Amino acid sequence: MIRHSDNTSESWKTLPWKQFRRNLFRLQKRVYKAIQVGDKRKAMSLQKLMGATRFGEVGSKTSDR
Prior knowledge:
With 65 residues, the chain is mainly α. The protein contains 4 helices and no strands.
């Protein structure tokens, strides 16, 4: 069992969630547009960027709710 300190949960609450969601949505739009014009390389690099960035990682976790 993993125990989290109160500081960890409090710092989690203070993250800029709205900004994470906004940036993630922008990246998703860019991926969609790249796929529409047939630029697979650009789409793949943007998807890789989404996985590597903090807001991509956090945004994917919050979308499961």
